[in-house]
Amino acid sequence: MRSPMRTKAKDDIPHVAQDALKQLGAKLREARIQRGWTQREFAQRVGVHESTLVRLEAGDAGVTTAVLACALNALGGLQGFCEPQLHPKVGGALIETAIPRRRVGGVRIPRRLNLEAYPQLKQLAWNRTTKDIDAEDALSLYERNWRFVDVDALSDKEAKLIDRLKKKFGHGVLNV
To answer: Matching SMART domains, A to Z (predicted)?
Structure first.
């Protein structure tokens, strides 16, 4: 059963705001499609269930602002709101406004990465029992825990790895 307060709050949203939410949802959907992501892939990147993403793309006023912020972040659209400190070792801007190419040629990364070779990644994977990690999982760890990465302490090797991971799995975007 829905809370009457919650339903009333949705009903009180002005039509202009409802239209804006629908337009925003349509733009999010368009950006997702341009990147070649399915709803399931985008939902995983945002960290929500697929049905929540469907509601977001439909402009449902009941979707929280946190979900909206996560969706914008996954698309690289939070740049104007909160720009991260950029560092040249990480390959320039962490969030790029241009829609990345779907396929990047020449980017070779081993399937499994030895944590000993990448000190910052090793710290982020402190709770893992294995000595190696899947490359795509490594990118996810960097993105989710970027606030703990000491960018100044990154070795050139690890900075290049982050850049290659970003190009291969992140469609050219590091979602931090």
So the answer is: HTH_XRE
